[in-house]
Design a protein that fits this description.
Mean pLDDT: 87
Strand order of the largest sheet: 1-3-2
Number of strands: 3
Number of domains: 1
Strand content: 5-15%
Radius of gyration: 20 Å
Distance between the termini: 40 Å
GO molecular function: metal ion binding; metalloendopeptidase activity
GO biological process, one term: mitochondrial proton-transporting ATP synthase complex assembly
Largest sheet: 3 strands, mixed
Enzyme class: hydrolase
Membrane topology: Peripheral membrane protein
Keywords: Hydrolase, Membrane, Metal-binding, Metalloprotease, Mitochondrion, Mitochondrion inner membrane, Protease
Number of helices: 8
Structural class: mainly alpha
């Protein structure tokens, strides 16, 4: 931190900054926070690509299935929506730098999006088909590790201990399908998720079992 930034920060926090300088400082502060978030996000991304077993495995499996996802296809940016990331078949993987809590959260988020990329390369998903979308969301939430038991404890989201994983997967899949432009409402999303649930939840490819 430069002396000038430190001086401005102290003046702002202690109320000694001139009124005409406050707006400019707050804009600069926001820009700095965005830059710091961006830098941190890319550091976490690079760590995951190089050291996370599940991310490394998924990148390998995507390549084996005919796809190609590398660091250049995984970008960090600010998101308005309350989500950790997203996948687009033509644009790649988005990591929401302003929603990422730590590198473990990014690992789960990236693994989730890479399951979508795997499904896209192996099964040629039609993302406007609600059943296709629901199936990939079920698999992504189940296989990425984001619904592992410890994450559920952190969120205090477990109602039924024995079925906590399944409840988490279903809840997250419904929310994602609701965001599909072809979905009318929550009731339709729940119906579609229920229709494909058994086959998609039990499909653990490319893993031998659910990653916990």
């Amino acid at each position: 931190m430069s002396f000038e930034w430190w001086r401005r920060s102290m003046a702002y926090k202690t109320g000694f900054m001139k009124k005409e300088d406050v707006v400019e400082y707050e804009k600069d502060l926001k820009d700095k926070q965005v830059q710091d978030e961006c830098k941190q996000c890319y550091e976490y991304r690079d760590w995951a690509i190089n050291y996370s077993p599940i991310v490394i495995f998924m990148l390998q499996q995507i390549k084996k299935s005919g796809g190609d996802v590398s660091a250049k296809d995984i970008v960090c940016d600010v998101c308005d929506e309350w989500k950790g990331g997203g996948y687009h078949p033509e644009l790649g993987v988005l990591l929401c730098q302003n929603r990422i809590i730590d590198k473990w959260h990014l690992e789960d988020t990236l693994a989730h999006e890479l399951v979508h990329a795997y499904d896209d390369s192996k099964f040629k998903v039609d993302w406007l088909n609600l059943k296709h979308h629901a199936c990939s969301e079920i698999r992504a939430s189940s296989l990425s590790g984001e619904c592992r038991i410890m994450n559920q404890f952190k969120r205090a989201a477990i109602k039924n201990f024995g079925r906590g994983h399944q409840e988490c997967v279903k809840r997250r899949a419904v929310l994602s399908v609701m965001a599909n432009p072809g979905c009318k409402d929550k009731e339709q999303a729940e119906k579609v998720v229920d229709e494909v649930w058994e086959s998609c939840f039990n499909d653990t490819r490319p893993f031998d079992q659910i990653y916990k």
